[in-house]
Sequence to fold (417 residues):
Amino acid sequence: MQCEIITIGDEILIGQVIDTNSAWIAGQLNMNGIEVYQATSVHDDPEHIRVALRNAGERVDLVVLTGGLGPTKDDITKKVLCEFFQTSLVFHEPTFELIQQRFKNRNIPLNKLNRDQALVPEICTVLPNRAGTAPGMWFEKKDTIYISLPGVPFEMKQLMQQEVLPRLKSHHKIKAIYHKTILTQGIPESMLAERIEQWETSLPQHIKLAYLPNPMSVRLRLSATGNGGDTLKLQVDQEIEKLKLLIPEYIFGYDKETLAEVTGRLLLERKQSLAVAESCTGGFISHLITAVPGCSAWFKGSIIAYSNEVKQNILGVSAETLRQYGAVSEQVVREMVEGARKKLNAGFAVATTGIAGPTGGTEGKPVGTVWIAIASPNHTTAEKFVFGDIRERNIIRSGQTALQLLRRKIINENPTR
Fold:
């Protein structure tokens, strides 16, 4: 089954309101095996809505509309639906009773506009709205289902969960769909695609791969469709095992896991702790860490050593090292990370120093140059990166790369525990 979502409202098209409804509906339908073919936003204009309905009906089996069901004059969806389905409005007593009860509970007087919300197209199946006053409406025309829902997000969600999805499941054969997202870090999208090309080409036809890159990582989403959810999961898991043999060093987690979360879990398993010293990342690594619930069990704290004065006085970086090599150097980042590990009495430590930009670069140290060091109970390592010339991305990439280097070091120093 394929679906098109139509959101109605001038407020969306002028940027006053962000269309979160389409994203949420698409996610719910997808989890239930319904493919969203297209999402469209239209003006509060009768002809525009009619054209969108007609075009969608020619493309898909299911059309879901949101918006335009309120009590005011600019809410025109019901009128347009009557014209489109060649029917007329009738008074729906059960809907009016729900509206009356709602207003009584809130001690608000009922007026004619509120009463008119109980008017519905005669041929529709009414979907009771227990979170608001505008009911949902279900239509069928030829081989297409049309569902009209309120634009208010919490009302729309209640109707989708309690009315729409159960009806679709009980009356229509829906294929199973299974998604699994593999999280990678430390390899650009193009290089990743080249490295796994043969694996991607050999995927079964019913399993599709999507690349989802962002400054934090490259996500690989596998989507499988078929008749049995358990079978699909097994097949996808088998393909992931093959993938792990190709890029084991770059895969750090799955689905909604974060690199900080995965790294923290490794530290907990080994009964180790972490300290952080940040210069160019300015606390971003610490932010990623403290976003993880329970991180206090393994995270000691951080020192944001943005100035050379703090590097010297707090972390113990030598003035001579700074003078001879500069703040952005292997020698300085090594002293920073060792100072942080000692100062905060941690098992592992991470440190960053670099030129985030957009200014401050030189021929020898261009903008985007970052040194990252990891200290463990056994030894210290440092690595140089050149990320680019966009400050925000440099900070994000530095933070993620630091955590990835830490993750690898923890595993390599104690792989079996």
